[in-house]
């Protein structure tokens, strides 16, 4: 990752994002979904301050972007491991299939509503969302 897109570099104006189909972005923001399940995983861990962008339909090679996404949370991906059948509930999934990875999410920070953010496939960079809010309505930052 080059320094102009790496959110860990001081003064950088970009963040790494991951799109999630509704309602699962909201479930992550609410703390009900603690695992994200994917067929792939990030190259480097932990992945800090990942922006969760919720969108209304599944993206694909035929539809790789949805311009109407919503940044709903900042999270840290703490670890990745093979997804197990006893983790279906934590993933808010309707069933288990072998061969997938469970991304363990932590340090969830809810983002206030803001302008539309594009949802894209994979990990991608976006301009930073507004600062997260505390449960008491105060801005964190």
Quick gist of this model?
The protein has about 140 residues and is mainly β. It is about 5% helix and about 40% strand.
Distance between the termini: 25 Å
Give the oligomeric state: single chain
Q: In the CATH hierarchy, what is the class?
A: Mainly Beta
What CATH calls the topology is Archaeosine Trna-guanine Transglycosylase, Chain: A, domain 4
Average the pLDDT over all residues and give the rounded result. 87
Radius of gyration over C-alpha positions, nearest whole angstrom: 15 Å
- In helices, the fraction of residues equals under 10%
Give the overall shape.
Answer: globular
Number of strands: 7
Number of helices: 1
Write the CATH homologous superfamily. Hypothetical protein
Q: What would CATH call the architecture?
A: Roll
Proportion of beta-strand residues: 35-45%
Structural class by sheet pairing and helices: mainly beta
Report on the architecture of this protein.
The chain has one domain: Hypothetical protein (Archaeosine Trna-guanine Transglycosylase, Chain: A, domain 4, Roll), CATH 2.30.130.30. It has one helix and seven strands. It has one helix spanning 24-29, and strands spanning 15-21, 35-38, 47-55, 65-82, 101-110, 117-120, 123-126. Strands 1, 2, 3, 4, 5, 6 and 7 form a seven-stranded mixed sheet that branches.
Question: Layout of SSEs?
Answer:
Elements: E1 15-21, H1 24-29, E2 35-38, E3 47-55, E4 65-82, E5 101-110, E6 117-120, E7 123-126
